[in-house]
Amino acid sequence: VQLQASGGGLVQVGGSLRLSCAASGLTFSRYVMGWFRQAPGKEREFVGAISWSGSSTLYADSVKGRFTISRDNAKNLVYLQMNSLKPEDTAAYYCAARAGAALLASTRYDYWGQGTQVTVSS
After folding, report:
1. N or C: which end of the chain has fewer CB within 10 A?
2. 100 CB contacts (<8 Å, ≥6 apart)?
3. How far is it, in rounded angstroms, from Cα 32 to Cα 18?
4. For 1-16, what is each residue's pLDDT tens digit?
5. How many other CB atoms are there within 10 angstroms of residue 79's CB atom?
6. Residues 83-116: pLDDT tens digits?
7. CB 7 within 8 A of CB 117
């Protein structure tokens, strides 16, 4: 299984970025997909998750209303649209896959990709 996150970069406060995560080696449509982030010196934290079909999502309070997760099961892709970015959103962002139907806000995911760095400058 491989999860490849991309789309990170440097953006100014209030700007937007869209992260992508390409999955391979798994039946993508049967995995809950999650996004997490980790800032230097901090623990990895949950950002959001999306159900198999994309009909259900779960977000951390810190990003609710600003970030949107979506997926394209035909292309094995999951996205994280980030709007109204704040300096505190600066972190390495990771995508993860979890077998089963439950949307979890914990780090109990089966597979993880490498991080893509997002830096929000003020």
Report:
1. C
2. 32
3. 19
4. 999 999 999 999 999 9
5. 19
6. 999 999 999 999 999 998 888 888 899 999 999 9
7. no
Say whether 54 sits in a helix, a strand or coil.
coil
Token duo for residue 27: 């039946």
Can you say whether the dihedral through the CA atoms of 97, 99, 105, 108 is positive or negative? negative
The helix/strand/coil state of 29 is helix
Coarse DSSP helix, strand, coil percentages of the chain, rounded to the nearest 5 percent: 5, 50, 45
For 47, residues 6+ apart whose C-beta sits below 8 A from its C-beta are 34, 35, 36, 37, 59, 60, 63, 67, 80, 93
Query: Which residues on neighbouring strands pair with residue 46, listed in sequence order?
Result: 36
